[in-house]
């Protein structure tokens, strides 16, 4: 860059037609300068200009000048495209730029308008739209709320629907990443565009491109998690085609299509989701949160879909489905009370209306506990990192620290301890009322799984951690554990896949009589009892995988405990069970 920064800024701010060439030159020089630097401050060290201004003020002046270009109604499209590219480069080398861009009064709105009116047939227009998507993707890493508040979610979804066939694959991925991030900002209780968003995502589920459909399901999983965290019934998510897509995906599982990453896949058919882990996780979240969804699913062709997936799926797929079946069997035979015992029920009442219990709890908390100052938070984190258990406990008790406070980065004390602390710290917090499922970015179970900490995972599950919660990127704790290949992470995977074994609230005895809550389920219970026992017996004898055999036997035992003598006699299923027992005895298993 040969021009003085003062002159370069003047060229960028030029708005006359005669100055467009200078504006373009300034943009190209600025792009090259930032692109070739890995430190934004060093970009301008060679200029005398820097002596008069702080580094940060200098490049912020350029960022604001770039934002102002989007406010010019007469600016040519090719200049807007280079401007968006320059903003992308700034965002790549400076985390502070995101805040500065989103604080600009109109730039986000102007970019959204560009997406809305883009002429995708024109090459320059297409390049501009794709570059705006790149800007949004980087902004979403730190300032997603600003884009969401400007209705950016709607514009990006419309852009995907209208232009997916002509934009580059990486731009499509960026657009889908933006949608996933923005979905996480939706408040199910206060969103005027919720139904429109669900309808748009449903259209993406039926997309010809399975890549788009898979990401749309990720969005549904994130949205379902938002409903769960807000204690709202997720039934609205099923208004369109979600149920059909989920069941169809289970129907079309094929052993022969497992990709290099280990993600179980299905055939390339419209409305078929290739990531079965997301399918089963979403089914679990929906059933936990909604009695209506559970009722409808039980009366659909779910048994056929489950049989197809269990018979044709690989180990990971089968184990994921068995986790879902463990939940479904409890809901079928016990009703919603099975969720109360596990500590993972989602209330469908209005959480804004306090109950006597919540009032007493909040009153007690407010009188005895305090939110720590920044300095106190730093001291607590220091005790956690040094693993000084006694000092950690003493500091909390002496200063009456609120166990469930959330710090400035959205982390709870239990989040920090799950990542860096000791088992004793986790036990202490859980015994004193720490919410194991709290955390703005991720739950404590996510952190324990990410860092490969099996003992911590066991304790969190013991105190009711929800294995189906998703982090801000739409991933479960099991997904996080699967990102690593070492022994500790494999142990975490094994624990999460058999999470029932670590739950401290297991049922000591099962009442074989049908409760009032499930009287209307008698016929459906008989159907599932017969189908599942037959499927499990066949699966046990057809598989050589020990983990599947173990899970199969546990679910068979659970079904037999729930069933009555009359049901067993009526269904004539003892033959299958005796054949299974004979196989186990003969093979010394």
Short recap of the structure:
The chain has 589 residues and is mainly α. The chain has a domain at 368-502: Ankyrin repeat-containing domain (Serine Threonine Protein Phosphatase 5, Tetratricopeptide repeat).
Q: Which structural traits does this protein have?
A:
63% helix, 30 helices, 2 strands, 589 residues, Serine Threonine Protein Phosphatase 5, Tetratricopeptide repeat, two-stranded antiparallel sheet, mainly alpha
**What is the C-alpha radius of gyration, as a whole number of Å?**
28 Å
Q: Record the strand order, biggest sheet.
A: 1-2
Shape: globular
**Share in β-strands:** under 5%
Class of secondary structure makeup: mainly alpha
Low-confidence stretches: 47-56, 255-267, 343-367, 504-518
- Tally the helices: 30
How helix-rich are the residues, as a percent range?
A: 55-70%
What is the CATH-assigned architecture of the domain at 368-502? Alpha Horseshoe
Mind telling me the CATH class of the domain at 368-502? Mainly Alpha
The count of DSSP E runs of length 2 or more, i.e. the number of strands, is: 2
Oligomeric grouping of the chains: single chain
Which topology of the domain at 368-502 does CATH recognise?
Answer: Serine Threonine Protein Phosphatase 5, Tetratricopeptide repeat
**Head-to-tail CA distance between termini:** 75 Å
CATH superfamily of the domain at 368-502: Ankyrin repeat-containing domain
Q: Compute the average pLDDT.
A: 80
